Amino acid sequence: MEPPARAAALDELARSLRERLLVEAAAGEGDLNGRIRALVEREAGVLDADARDELVTRVGERSFGLGPLEALLSDPAVEEVMVNGPGAVWIERAGRLERTEVGFASAADVRDVIERILAPLGRRVDEAQPLCDARLSDGSRVNVVIAPLALDGPLLTIRRFRRHGLGAQELVALDTMPQALCDLLGAAVRTRLNVLVSGGTGSGKTTTLNALSSFIPATERVVTIEDIAELRLRQPHVVRLEARPPSVEGRGEVTIRRLVRNALRMRPDRIIVGEVRGAEALDMLGAMSTGHDGSLSSVHAGSPEEALRRVETLALMAGIGLPHAAIREQVADALDLVVHQARMADGARKIVAVCEVVRVAAGPATREVYRLRGGRAVWRAPLHGALAERLALVEGTESA
User: Residues 25-42: pLDDT tens digits?
Assistant: First the structure.
């Protein structure tokens, strides 16, 4: 590892040479790498060959790469990168947070990286719009917050994209769910139950949603709708839709709700809404209860019961004047199962509950089919005979 003083000196020199490169850009000829090498040889020829090579790399990173983040993003084990201002860069690896020795020399360097990420996407942040969500070319999700909202320097969060989503058996191998539960959920998807996956941020909802989609027969037409595309279905007939934020002029926004309504005109056998966050919940419920059985979605929630309440609240945001009781009835009609996932203290993601959605006098309620208690799986039989017939519960399940 480089001595801190030498690294700091190379960083300062790289920043200076990058500024010189920008000044000379208008008159420069040839490829950028060649111009960087020529500039280093001319301005830093007294350094040894290794130092010059390192300097070329650093100037290149500051010119068209992601600077110090390049090394982190090249590590396949890194799941998320979090820049908390210039001096603090954290990563998530195997579900655990780690502080790295990587850092930026100044807030301006962080802003340079942010601009290099957003510029090719036609996005920008400034004091008038200090928040931004975006997606890298490889599918990784990016969130940016700058001043005046970020008090300690620009904030940058990059959630890595797994090019090939984990399958159901891989989740079994990772102990996210036992084989018996995998068989149960596979039967639920194949028999066209409407399934809602709930959990907190980073609990693995999208990964589980992607795994459940693998049980959809290859003969069906599937439409996926996401805010930022993350799902990777393996069926041959998949139509992928992604919402579009407004342009810098505030025009051209296409919401998830609009995409859900449009999907109903696309002859889908199933609709998968990556995550329900707003008024599109009402349209999703309508689709699930009007002939699109077997649809899947996810929602942020702390428990299966809270997931139903959150869907109700989001559906009310549609603002069409439906009584709350009517929304509750629609939730009870539309949803069959809630799969709840959590990230444990050791960083592992596990499905901790599967609940049947039942109708009671006050509206929808949940009844446990599966619960992970103290690391031990506890099972119950479904309440309704119709659901029991549709779900071929696996042998060997344990009664509570």
Answer: 544 455 666 777 887 888
